[in-house]
Write a structure and sequence with these properties.
By secondary structure, the protein is α/β, with parallel strands linked by helices. It has a single domain, classed as 3-Layer(aba) Sandwich (Rossmann fold). Helices cover 43% and strands 15% of the residues. It is built from 13 helices and eight strands. Helix 3 crosses helix 4. The chain starts with a helix and ends with a helix.
């Protein structure tokens, strides 16, 4: 059955190749890189910076996203008093992707390299949303010398018992079928964005022009989509190992969690994290999986406070 499906995908993918190239050119013209390329470990990390003075803050985006996620939400609230760095994770946005980048340790090393390059010798407030929360935690575990505090936004922190994976990740992640399957995404993916965006914000309303402001269309470039799928398929096993180390964390941690979050279960993630380490938990009853939009000022206040301590 898998072989027949794979062959069908290959046939469709061949016909879609020209379309995917045209889509890539169009979406990259609409959303070009707006930051700097920082060399880390033989790859480049695309980093957007706002603010030229003050304590450093590094923001790490979640799955299916890129660094522009924060450029119109949190960065404008902090740019006058802080140096805000927003990095594309490996294979997302305009960052290169090292070998084995589905490993949280590899992603954390790329983020740590950004801090070594742009804020050498300083301790930083790390902000991580969703998947980015897992990466921020790993930076704190592997390079505590870089981290002053953590601000986690609807973070994914622990294994969740299987399931919950989007079906298309199973086709996009494998090395043989994935590259062909991903050629189809520019044909169908953008048309599904509306429902997906509403779902991650629910019960809060999605902001107007969210997709455009956050350049979500970059996701449907085939290499970006494959990177996202590989990250997601590996995540639970990665977290099962990483979560055993959370007792090592020795810095302030603030977590913003929407009680209406239907993308992850706060009980399975921050609920477990609280059992292992001290956490300042801020529960937001009217928010879902995107608390930095509806409660951006509260998040910015927490960052300011932690950066000044």
């Amino acid at each position: 059955m898998l072989t027949a499906t794979a062959l069908g995908i290959c046939a469709l993918g061949t016909g879609a190749c020209v379309t995917s190239t045209a889509y890539k050119n169009k979406v990259e013209a609409a959303y070009p890189p707006i930051g700097k390329a920082v060399a880390v470990g033989g790859e480049t990390v695309h980093v957007i910076q706002e603010g030229q003075a003050g304590p450093p803050v590094l923001m790490i985006h979640g799955a299916s996203a890129n660094a522009r996620e924060f450029t119109w939400t949190l960065a404008p609230r902090l740019e006058n008093t802080h140096r805000v760095f927003m990095a594309d994770r490996p294979g997302h946005g305009y960052s290169g992707r090292p070998e084995d980048a589905h490993n949280l340790g590899v992603q954390a090393a790329q983020m740590a390299g950004v801090l070594d390059a742009l804020a050498p010798g300083e301790k930083t407030v790390l902000v991580g949303h969703s998947f980015g929360g897992a990466v921020a935690l790993r930076v704190a575990l592997d390079r505590p010398d870089l981290v002053k505090a953590l601000v986690l936004l609807a973070p994914v922190t622990h294994e969740w018992g299987g399931g919950g994976q989007a079906w298309y990740n199973s086709f996009a992640a494998p090395p043989l079928v994935g590259p062909v399957f991903s050629q189809l995404l520019p044909l169908v993916g953008p048309g599904q964005l509306g429902n997906g965006i509403d779902g991650v914000f629910d019960p809060a309303p999605a902001p107007e022009n969210y997709s455009e402001n956050s350049a979500i269309g970059l996701l449907f470039r085939p290499p970006n989509f494959r990177a996202n799928a590989r990250d997601m398929k590996a995540l639970e096993d990665q977290l099962a190992a990483q979560s055993k180390r959370y007792g090592e964390l020795d810095m302030p941690i603030t977590v913003f969690s929407g009680s209406g979050d239907t993308v992850i279960s706060p009980k399975l993630h921050v609920g477990q994290l609280k059992k292992q380490v001290a956490v300042n938990l801020v529960i937001l009853p009217q928010e879902g999986h995107m608390p930095h939009h509806g409660e951006g000022e509260a998040v910015a206040d927490a960052i300011r406070r932690l950066a000044s301590e």
